[in-house]
Amino acid sequence: MNPFISPAYAQDAVGSALSGSGVIQFLPIVAIFVVFYFLMIRPQQQQQKTLKAQLAAVKRGDRVLTSGGIVGTVQKARDGASEIEVEIAPNVRVTVVRETLTQVLTATAPAAANDSK
User: Fold this and answer.
1) Residue 65: which pLDDT band, with cuts at 50, 70 and 90?
2) Whole-angstrom distance, CA of residue 70 vs CA of residue 84
3) Res. 84: pLDDT tops 90
4) Which pLDDT tens digit goes with each residue over 15-60?
5) pLDDT of the residue at 116
6) Could you tell me what percentage of the chain is helix, strand and coil, using 3-state DSSP and rounding each to the nearest 5?
7) CA–CA dist 39, 35 (Å, integer)
8) Cβ distance 64 to 108 under 8 Å?
9) Residues contacting 95, CB < 8 A, separation 6+
10) What is the mean pLDDT of residues 58-76?
11) Domain limits of the chain?
12) Which one, of 63, 9, 51, 47, lies nearest residue 75 by Cα?
């Protein structure tokens, strides 16, 4: 055994013993991305999807919160229209763009169909 083996030869011997070491070094990065996706990205996407569905279903009588922090009651909301009319105080109505709503605070229950006829 030669005590004067060059460091380059020693590193090459270890590298060839661990074939695929590049893949092993790449696995922690992949694992971090997977954890990041399930803890941060996916819940945010689900929250945005539910908010979008709530905004599409906004109707008269719902209490909503705008991005400016104004709480009001929806007075006019047409399906497919981008603007809705919100009453923020008695006899004070403003028109807001539907996408500026950040939360539907209370949704009114749909009117029960009268099938007793």
Assistant:
1) very high
2) 14
3) yes
4) 555 556 777 888 999 999 999 999 999 999 999 999 999 888 899 9
5) 47
6) 45, 25, 30
7) 6
8) no
9) 83, 84, 85, 86
10) 93
11) 8-51, 57-106
12) 63
CA distance 51 to 46: 9
Distance, CA of 8 to chain centre: 50
- Pair of tokens at residue 76: 């006019």
Mean pLDDT of the residues in the chain: 82
Select the CATH number that applies to the domain covering 57-106 from these four: 2.60.40, 3.90.550, 2.30.30, 3.40.50: 2.30.30
Cα first-last separation, the chain: 102
Strands 101-106 and 83-89: unpaired
pTM of the model: 0.61
